[in-house]
Fold these 2 entries.
Entry 1:
Amino acid sequence: MDLEALMLSRLQFAFTIAFHIIFPSFTIGLASYLAVLEGLWLTTRNEAFKTLYLFWVKIFAISFGMGVVSGVVMSYQLGANWSAFSAMASPVIGPLLAFEVLTAFFLEASFLGIMLFGWKKVGPGLHFTATVLVAVGTLISAFWIISANSWMQYPTGFERTPEGGLIAVDWMEVIFSPTFPARLTHMVLAAYLTTALVVGAASAWRLLKRPEEPEARIGLRMAVGMFAIVAPLQLLVGDISGKEVLRFQPAKLAAIEAFWETKAEQAFHIIAWPDREAEKNHWELSVPKVGSWITAGSSSAEIKGLKAFAPEDRPPVAVVFWAFRAMVGLGILMIALGAWGAWLCWRGEPEKSRLFLRACVAMGPAGFVAVICGWIVAEVGRQPWVITGVMRTAEGVSPVGAGQVSASLLGFFIVYAVIFSVGVLYILRLIAEGPVAGSDEPPPMTQRAPGSALAAAPEDPGNPGLGERR
Amino acid sequence: MSLDLPLIWAVIIATAVLLYVLLDGFDLGVGILFPFARGPADRDVMMDTIAPVWDGNETWLVLGGGGLFAAFPLAYSAIMPALYIPVILMLLALILRGVAFEFRLRGRRRGKAFWTAAFAGGSLAAAIAQGFILGGFIQGITLDGVAFGGQPFDWLTPYTLLVSVGLVAGYALLGATWLILKTKDELHGDARRWAWIAGGATAALLTAVSLATLFVHPEVASRWGYTDGGFDLGRLIPHLPIPALGFIGLAILVIGLRRHSHAWPIIGAYAVFLSGYIGLAAGFFPNIVPYDMTFRQAASQDNALGLMLVGVGILLPVILGYTIWVYWLFRGKVTPDAGYH
């Protein structure tokens, strides 16, 4: 086996999937937010909701496009770089990914066209339906992909065939593997939080410059509401998910907490420097007994340490340990931001506290960082397995040489660096201009909003323009 | 009742790939024709004709790849490593042209110029890469057991280069005939001129590819009755409707262009593509990895195929329904909506 090609393939997969997940984790939340905004506008007729919709839909279009193109990569890279894994896993999780395409991708892609270009083509009710369908599509997509990934974390409902392949014996057990419900909830909440943090930061940024802007005030309050409710809920769901890791993937749990020995009353390491070679933490800042209590709910519980697993079955420790701490640390900051914001709202005007607004701006990217850290914990923590207990990552790789993989990796680095920096630049530019400037963009003849009396009126048949949102 | 699941799935995947070629073909073609437009205003219109539908079109590619993974895992895991470089090239090109739809609107002067070039270059590069994928596929993939056992550049030969140029011409033809359907005035006139040129090139290259295929792979040639320098009419005649469809398509295209029809040229171009596609399929069926793995050998477990067939049976009609509805909704001519860029 070509070890260099294996490492490069892993690096390429990690890079392309980490890049990809940034966009769904934002667009899943943003699609739902857009559906809420359009719904609120149709029911209240408050023009500020329309302005907000027209503003965020532009940012949605950019992010969704980047998510689509980086997602197409995943459906081919699986075979290009991980052909042995594909051949092995397909009879079980192939249908899950096929269902993702059939139930989600077509829905999103088709109705996105109506959402972005259909203002004049359909009535307000139908346009709202298109927005809702896109939002539903993003959630269905999350359902299938987390289902497939959860099966890889803890596979159930399958048997080995005499030829050495796999066959599903119970589809419900395949789709609803034990870790799936909590992990799906965790991911969807993460997406909602990520979006709320971006909306909060964009609104706060506007309010620092123009404290009276009504759209920004609405946006900030909606975001604060999400922080205050979803962030604590996320801690709860994360804890449930963590307890499942203890039960189903004890080696991953030991890596997350840098436990080496198997014992009761494990100490909780706030920070530590784990060393795989030396099989210990070089230094640690710990709270006695709390480790067992946090992971198992009881300080007397015996928790397996990494030494209980053969060295070749242990995941990398330091990466998992630190990624987990970064994720939880950011989560706690999100809870604090929510509590602070809720208190300011209860007192009256969160817009008045410039310190709070600055904190919101600073926390804008926190969701993305937390999501990527969470996925590092999930995926690196599963190593050395690609399908836990069934197939090692090293066995899944394609017969493709290191030269080809380094060339493709370089290609992805360059193209992704360009589209990422430009995409972020364009999004930040839109945010800096603010929602009002953005909604001014449609030209006079296309300014009929959805839901206005004219929106449903027949258009000039000789002039079916598509540029309503520009 | 027992269904022949692998056969049904072979038909489904073949249909998905065909729909991809026919649908994304015209929007890649519009990108290929981008450099020949008279100016930014025409390019804006060209892009607007495809902006609401390109994403759905590309989803057929995901269904093709995802479906191959799910239904014929051994084929998927043999073909992708064999065509690693052109597949990655195609993906990178599709990324650049895909983001260009939004980025081009947001860019200022230099940004807009860059993303205009990225859209044109990405569309062309994606077409070239797909040509190499197609060519590499037809000329056959070396297997070691069930895995790819050839060399990294097996796909790069004079034959695949010819296929690639042919596909670029074909996509340009689809793009031009799409623009004939969707535009008016000066751009419409330009599109007609492009269709003449691309149509001629496509006819010549398709003929060249067809003849070259007979020489490159004796197995394909013998399917068509061509062995040892002579034709066996008993084998050739049942296949003749396929090139006949191509000639009919070409005739529809030419007559449509001469009579200034708006819709007939694209119908003719589609018939030409259909004939090429069926012709290929006839050349290597039932192989799914030419010429050593049949679709039956590559098929997944029957219970997986069965489960997915239930899904496809319910969902594909729905997908086709709303796809047609979206095209219907955005029907008619696209014109420069004064000042919206």
Note: Chain B has one domain: 5-329.
Entry 2:
Amino acid sequence: MRLSTRMRIPSRAIVLAIAAGGLPLQNGQAAEPQTTPAVDQYDHALPSGVVARLSAVRFPHPCPLYSWAYSPDGKTLVSLAEDQVVRFWNTANGQLTHKIDSPATVITPWPGQVAVSPDGRRAAIAYGSVWIRILDLTNAEILHDIKALRPDVVRDGWHAVEFFAAPPLLLVGSERASFWIDPESGKVQSRVHTGRFVARSKSADVCAFSDENYALELVRLQAADGPRFQPASLYTIRADRAIALSPDGRQIAVTGIGRIRKQGVVATEYPSASIEIHEISTNKLSSLMEFLGYWSTT
Amino acid sequence: MLVASGPKDAGVWEIGAGERLTELPASPNHLPYVFSPDGSKLSGVGAGSTIAQWVVATFAKPTSSAER
């Protein structure tokens, strides 16, 4: 079909507008491709034939992610992926700065977790419930590999890790107990709680531990005279539901709660398709947000 | 602020008001979203095993003056 004059003019105008944006034309023909490095604005290599990538910092992994954590200054991201490789990233430009292979072959159904110390000096990696590795966050040096007490029993393996500022210890949760580990010596110091460590508030030392019946105990860390936890509250939740503590340690968000018990008695029942926020000090429900299906809360 | 992810999508709530500010993509494999230490950024699993970051300030509802 022959184009009318009225249609040709705007069509040419569009071509010229694009050319002004960067594609040099010579006598109406595209110029020969210049030999510039095929990278995006963050110096990430581009696939063959791709001339540009319009995107933000994206931290590409070759396989599904398991866990990641920011350094306290927000400049470094530490990630663990399904290939059991730990990667350090520069958050400003997305550059991969360090890559650390796993201590040994780790094949368990438990994905693993990453934590970074509040002073920004250490990172802890729980690999598939078998190993905990302590890394120097400044240079990715491997400091300690700590094997689970019963690594053949997944329920007893290392699952959750979290650093504390005072005392400067690492809290490690397994299905049947939680322990303090000294990140400097790599030694397991003592058993903290008979429950599994599941969540912690970021700026107040309130932690949540879950027992085998999925009863959730909220405790507050007392650092003086040796670290110990003082009970704060008690809830009963369903095992597969998500838990998050507010940074100030005053509220807990749980999803799909079935029952709340007080002194062992079912006090309240709620529908499962909701997010509930409770005031820890009073055990009272403060907000209820409807949402269908939950995996995680933050 | 609270972020919760389910199998179909994720939601961001202002806890005090109980208001749902925005929706985000569902997080795969039950992985949680992660706030940066200063709370300014939120990170989650992006397309193709990447980590995507959101600027938390952009979740806030526009003020009445900004809406005009």
Note: Chain B is about 5% helix and 45% strand.
